[in-house]
Amino acid sequence: MSVTLPTLIQKVTNASSVNQLCGHYMDAAGELFGSQHWGIYIHDWAGQQGTIHLQGLPDSFIDYYSKVGAALDKVMEYVVCHHAPAHEQIIFTEATWKQSELYQIGCGKIYDHEHIMTGPIVGEGRLIGTVQFARTSGNPAYNTQDLLQLSAICAHLSAKLALLRSQHELFVPKPKISLTPRELQMAALVAKGLTNAEIAAELWISQNTVKQTLKRIFRKLDVSARAEMVARLQLSRVCH
């Protein structure tokens, strides 16, 4: 039985936990959107670790994306800024997509992401997660119909996640995040994609100081990668 939009929406709506929500989504989303690679990422909340599910990709992709891809991903940047789904053709022409850093040094050449599409999961006015899709070589690009369907799915994912959280399914007391002005300044530079050396030059400090400060920020935010840090803080500089 083929997957339809109403079928996936019903599965999402009927989920009784975040894990079940992600499971139902992952079981059906790839077929619905004709994708060979797909995933869902829900940011950490109320002391709970973030949730990442991937299909069709090796575990190494998570490490690659957090260290390299996130800083180059203009589609994700669009989604973060506009809280709306996007595929590569919204940002690039076909030629400029193939020439982009994201395509050339990872997603396209290594992982065969010929076409990509990302959608937002939102709550309380901010991004609290994303869904991602990729089609491999020989498959058509995503189109307007795909974006319309993804908008619908993201709306239902956002609503269901908000309901689950309101029911305290994930609730534990959340400590206040307190970063110093210097730490916030450094986090903003990370969000711009600067390397440790570039941050050191910008702030007139040593690279070792940058490294130690980032470690301190990671501990405060309970994250292990730059992309997680940026997502956690939801820095508005990403949109500028």
Gap from first CA to last CA? 45 Å
Query: What does the main sheet amount to?
Result: 5 strands, antiparallel
Approximately how much beta-strand content do the residues carry? Answer: 5-15%
Kindly provide the radius of gyration, computed on alpha-carbon positions and rounded to a whole number of angstroms: 18 Å
Query: Number of helical segments?
Result: 12
Overall pLDDT: 86
What is the assigned CATH homologous superfamily of the largest domain? Answer: Transcription factor LuxR-like, autoinducer-binding domain
Helix content: 40-55%
What CATH architecture of the largest domain do you see?
2-Layer Sandwich
- Order of strands in the sheet with most strands: 2-1-5-4-3
Domains (count): 2
Topology:
Elements: H1 5-14, H2 18-32, E1 37-42, E2 51-55, H3 60-72, H4 74-82, E3 86-87, H5 88-91, H6 94-99, H7 101-104, E4 115-123, E5 126-135, H8 144-166, H9 181-191, H10 196-203, H11 207-221, H12 226-233
Antiparallel strand pairs: 1-2, 1-5, 3-4, 4-5
Provide a concise account of the structure shown.
By secondary structure, this protein is an alpha+beta fold. Helices cover 52% and strands 13% of the residues.
Explain how this protein is built:
- The structure is a single chain.
- β1 (37-42) and β2 form a beta hairpin.
- The protein has helices at residues 5-14, 18-32, 60-72, 74-82, 88-91, 94-99, 101-104, 144-166, 181-191, 196-203, 207-221, 226-233; strands at residues 37-42, 51-55, 86-87, 115-123, 126-135.
- α1 packs antiparallel against α2 (18-32) and α1 runs parallel beside α8.
- The protein has 2 domains: 5-166, Beta-Lactamase; 181-239, Winged helix-like DNA-binding domain superfamily/Winged helix DNA-binding domain (Arc Repressor Mutant, subunit A, Orthogonal Bundle).
- Residues 168-174 and 235-240 have low confidence and may be disordered.
- Strands 2-1-5-4-3 form a 5-stranded antiparallel beta sheet, with helices on both faces.
- By secondary structure, it is an alpha+beta fold.
- It is built from 12 helices and 5 strands.
